[in-house]
Amino acid sequence: MKKKLALLLLCLAAYSVRAQSPQAINETVFKFGRFIYYLSSSYVDTVNIEKLTEDAIIKVLSELDPHSSYTSAKDAKAATESLLGNFDGIGIEFNMFNDTLLVVSPIAGGPSQKVGIVAGDRIVEVDGKNIAGVGVKSLDVMKTLRGPKGTVVNVRVARRGMEQLLDFTITRDKIPLYSIDAKFWAAPGVAYIRLGRFAATSHAEFVQALNELGKKPEGIILDLRGNAGGMLDASAYIADEFLSKNELVVYTEGRVMPRMDIVATDTLGRFEKGKLIILIDENSASASEIVAGAVQDWDRGIIVGRRSFGKGLVQNQVELPDGSLVRVTVARYHTPTGRVIQRPYNNGETEKYYKDLYQRYTNGELYSLDSLKSLPDSLKFYTLKKRRAVYGGGGVTPDVFVPLDTSNYTSYHARLVRMGIINQFTLSYIDANRSTLRQKYKTFKQFNKDFSVSDSLFNELVAFAEKQKLPKNEAEISKAKHDILVQLKGLVAQDIFTSSEYYEVVYPSIDNGYQKALEMMTSWKNYEKLLR
Question: Which of 181, 223, 281, 297 is catalytic?
């Protein structure tokens, strides 16, 4: 019965979308409202009208395109926070370790740091309620510790070396969510910046990252791999830093939305000259593709990696009366040459659409460029300065292809990561050695030079994994050992310094995309021909 009702609601909603005149829309809305009222007042059993309505909205949107979506009122706040780049809370990074909340790091300048919470503290009570050893989930903890700015939360903390629990009263405040995952000098004059998402604060963070590096780089490696997008404005501002005044960044156009051009200004442009490489992969989408597409179309830099996801649809977000959100596709975006980056889809076949990434894996595209050589001429465009051939119709195709590296892949290593074993082991090691490590390694430079994972520590990890029901596999352990050692060192660096140091340890050793970009930067003349 519920399926039939949902189908009826779908038909009503679909009719209202097709209707053009205000009178026809009003009649459909009245019809829908009358039906709901009759259903709630007369149906033989109690009907959950709220759920029925939500199901109908979700079903309608699923029949339109893969990126129109509905967010319940319950989840809307979290979705908005991620785009705004902040939330209200106490300001800690934490992990659930042995069923207890372990503070990995208090956020610098945040409420917790101000009252004296330190890394390694275990929060065992929140507002008088025990949260240790009772199976509390991370999401439940987040809900408990977050709250409106200015409100107070009382916590009790167990600290290593202290017999008594410590009491803290923390006043919640705005906590930033950062877009920049890493920034460091990859080589003399070459800056590496990893941007994880495009939020309201992304451009300001990008500028700050450049400033904190201390001097203007000769070259920039901008890593957008895995960046699923975000705010259009943020991507436009960052692209503007690379492009000259009046150069088109992107334009959008829809059935009822007129063409809107976004062009580079003369107020930004901190890196209009200099060597530029942008790293992308199959998980780089939307706003990432806007930046990569603009840079490629203007022959401003070299795109390195694998074909991007292919999301070129623009959504407008509307808040419904109960606080829920509907994001509806209103336009397509086009790169400066006119390329449509959106890959093909059939209405209502969302599951098949998202299986495309799996198809890329199975058909060999992630390992070889050959599968892309048969693109039709109808998808061919030419860059605006050098008249190089580029392609539309589904993602940004890189100038330099870097295959997915599985040379050291083993299922043992994969399970070590997926099961959270390597993270749990690192937390345990850090917890027991935090003060010693911080006293011994005052700077990351010293740590990176002198710290290495000993064979005994590695063997402890393997033994810990066995206790966590991951059987030892000598052949696979031997094959993956180098990568596991590097990752373990990176996780230690991340804990005693920042996440940026994780990438600075790991990428030079085991990331072939980063290695290729750096090799290109340091032998630029060999690759400059791509921009001629």
Answer: 297
